């Protein structure tokens, strides 16, 4: 049984439970960059993002029999990654709060800049514009963990509200509420910092 590399294609529970190590390695190769990108956006630390990426796939393989097939394998992996990032933030609260006030080093900033999509015509894609990236990260860093996760999955990963709801095991209405609060807070912070907020409600 060959595992699909397409993150939008669902994997049946039976297929997931029967994955061999070699087949799971194909899933890792297909999704590793995206999971790392999600985690880097959430934890803002390249070393931690790398470690958590490995942990994400380790947990996924260990718990593959619990996969119910209600979402794509990619969405399931994002859910594991988000939960790991939230746990990481809680367990390292002191360093997390220190990072809220600026980048720990230039390498982290450069890596995050590469992680976001290039600017394009739509307001969502314009979030990745390099000239505003640091200001946006500073504002996003101050959001509560779940609001930050919803914000990044929506704008950096361009996931739909339904996909985010699946990834975070939330109702779509709850995702919308988190996103609305996050946008309000980010816009307020950017205005205070002298930047024009160019984010879309959807």
Topology at a glance:
Blueprint: H1 13-17, H2 21-43, H3 46-62, H4 73-91, H5 93-99, H6 106-115, H7 123-126, H8 130-141, H9 145-155, H10 161-168, H11 172-192
Number of helices: 11
Could you say which structural class the secondary elements and strand pairing correspond to?
mainly alpha
The arrangement of helices and strands along the chain is HHHHHHHHHHH
Largest sheet: none
**Residue share in helices?**
55-70%
Gyration radius, in Å: 17 Å
CATH superfamily of the largest domain: RNA polymerase sigma factor, region 2, helix turn helix motif
Span from first to last CA? 38 Å
The gross shape turns out to be globular
What is the residue-mean pLDDT, rounded to a whole number?
Answer: 75
Number of domains: 2
Named CATH topology of the largest domain: Rna Polymerase Sigma Factor, Chain: A
Question: Under the CATH scheme, which class of the largest domain?
Answer: Mainly Alpha
**Total strand count, please?**
0
Task: Please state roughly what percent of the residues sit in beta strands, choosing from under 5%, 5-15%, 15-25%, 25-35%, 35-45% or over 45%.
Answer: under 5%
Question: Which CATH architecture of the largest domain?
Answer: Orthogonal Bundle
Uncertain residue segments:
1-10, 94-121, 125-129
